[in-house]
């Protein structure tokens, strides 16, 4: 068996998320079908995280093992020939047997992109170009950026993020062997920046709960429009109640940007841009 690690980028618009689902197009299912067609082997690539329907990736990492002896450069070339254009394999390399795309990850970085249709300094509403519309949240409110920056910074550190988890978060095994979502995560960086005509929220953490980033963005937008004060972010965290936070931001503005692996200091996809 040869153990493989791949880095791939995909447009999530046409997929029902990463995880394989019967009768529905998914990234994981598409990769599995291509590998079976190429090698005759039924394998299920394991991703660094399960992106939701409509969410994109600049650098998703996946791992799997094959019996077929294929050089890395040939595997990369063959997969890209067979995959739809919405999915591209960027890098292929052999991995240690114990490597697992999800379990071995130590940090992940996401970016959420907002197109500001209304800005206080403009009398007219901005028109979101159709070429970026599938990849941004076209937000109808004028947003106070400084308040959003202040609120975002309050998320740094180790907190219980129950207030920002989906009501039905993915089940996960905790270190003590019990099951259920572990809501305690460490956020290393959380910032709002204006760049290239977009408002971008960037967050790096030890892990993320189901819908966590999108729920944070929805809450930041509430701060930006004045429905919440930046200081209320601490109250929302302390509440440990999903009802205390803002709405869930649309899926299409979210990108998985990078995955880091501490064993070799690897930052798979760090710094990639679409």
Structure description:
- Strands 1, 2, 3, 4, 5, 6, 7, 8, 9, 10 and 11 form an eleven-stranded mixed beta sheet that branches.
- This protein is 20% helix and 31% strand.
- The model is unreliable at 169-179 and 270-274 (pLDDT under 50).
- Helix 3 crosses helix 4.
- The protein folds into two domains: 2-94, Pseudouridine synthase I, catalytic domain, N-terminal subdomain (Alpha-Beta Plaits, 2-Layer Sandwich); 106-266, Alpha-Beta Plaits (2-Layer Sandwich).
- With 274 residues, it is α+β, with helices and mostly antiparallel strands.
- Strand 10 and strand 11 form a beta hairpin.
- The chain has five helices and eleven strands.
- The longest helix has 13 residues, at 27-39.
Question: What characteristics describe this protein?
Answer:
Alpha-Beta Plaits; alpha+beta; single chain; globular; 11 strands; eleven-stranded mixed beta sheet; 5 helices; 274 residues; 20% helix
Which structural class should the secondary elements be placed in?
alpha+beta
Summed over residues and divided by their number, the pLDDT gives a mean of 91
Tell me what the CATH architecture of the largest domain is. 2-Layer Sandwich
* Fraction of residues in H or I helices: 10-25%
Largest sheet: 11 strands, mixed
- What share of residues are in beta strands? 25-35%
Count of distinct strands: 11
N-to-C SSE series? Answer: EHEEHEEEHEEEHHEE
For the record, the CATH class of the largest domain is Alpha Beta
Number of helices: 5
The CATH homologous superfamily of the largest domain is called Pseudouridine synthase I, catalytic domain, C-terminal subdomain
Q: Unreliable runs, pLDDT <50, ≥5 residues?
A: 169-179, 270-274
Q: What is the CA-atom radius of gyration, in angstroms?
A: 19 Å
């Amino acid at each position: 068996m040869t153990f493989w690690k791949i880095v791939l980028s995909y447009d999530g618009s046409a997929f029902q998320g990463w995880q394989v689902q019967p009768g529905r197009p998914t990234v994981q299912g598409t990769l599995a079908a291509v590998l079976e067609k190429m090698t005759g082997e039924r394998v299920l690539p394991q991703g660094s995280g399960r992106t939701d329907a409509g969410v994109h990736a600049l650098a998703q990492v996946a791992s799997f093992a094959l019996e077929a002896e294929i050089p890395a450069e040939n595997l990369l070339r063959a997969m890209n020939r067979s995959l739809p254009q919405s999915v591209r394999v960027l890098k292929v390399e052999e991995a240690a047997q114990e490597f697992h795309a999800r379990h071995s990850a130590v940090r992940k970085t996401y970016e959420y992109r907002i197109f500001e249709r209304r800005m206080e300094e403009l009398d007219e509403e901005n028109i979101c170009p159709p070429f970026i519309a599938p990849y941004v949240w076209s937000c109808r409110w004028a947003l106070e950026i400084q308040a959003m920056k202040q609120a975002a910074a309050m998320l740094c550190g180790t907190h219980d993020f129950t207030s920002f988890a989906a009501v039905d978060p993915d089940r996960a095994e905790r270190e003590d062997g019990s099951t259920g979502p572990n809501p305690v995560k460490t956020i290393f960086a959380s910032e709002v920046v204006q760049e290239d005509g977009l408002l971008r929220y960037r967050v790096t953490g030890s892990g993320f709960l189901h819908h966590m980033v999108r729920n944070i963005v929805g809450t930041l937008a509430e701060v930006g429009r004045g429905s919440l004060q930046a200081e209320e972010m601490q109250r929302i965290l302390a509440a440990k109640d999903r009802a205390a936070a803002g709405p869930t931001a649309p899926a299409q503005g979210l990108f998985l940007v990078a995955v880091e692996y501490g064993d070799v200091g690897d930052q798979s996809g760090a710094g990639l841009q679409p």
